[in-house]
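User: Second chain of the day. Same drill as before.
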Amino acid sequence: MDYDIKDIGLAEKGRLRAEWAEREMPVLRTIKERFAKEQPLEGIKLAGCLHITAETANLAHTLTAAGADLTLCASNPLSTQDDIAAHLVESGIPIFAIKDEDEKTYFDHMSATVDTGPQITMDDGADVVAMLHTEKKHLLKGVIGGMEETTTGVIRLKALHNEGRLAYPIVAVN
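Assistant: Same format as last time:
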């Protein structure tokens, strides 16, 4: 499994924090239990550019319990929690995120995530969508949909749509 994080030795601390957060997320826990049985995302590749936090860790575990093949990178290097990144890697989810990473590393991490050939994208700012519509156009053919969670990202998506260049449907979850 490819990944790039600060320190895998932080995984235990991240596991404890993710478990604590899960106790405060009973609805997501219920969905995870159902998805583990039903496997609605079996065989689906997801790529996400999201905040790497304890809450996102629980979303990631829910998606993989549903059968998804998930890879994540950081949408904001300042919010990345290195212990959570380590925990996710230890639990089998490829993560490309390091707190305070520089701009080149940020884009290298996003590129590695997009290079997995996702069918569904999850974005926080539409950076993955922008990359797919520019230097990674060859990967667009396999994308069936996505989600965006920020107002800024929705504005960027509307601009792509208005130009007639948005290549796949995206749901705004903001």
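The chain is about 45% helix and 15% strand.

User: Great, on to the next one.
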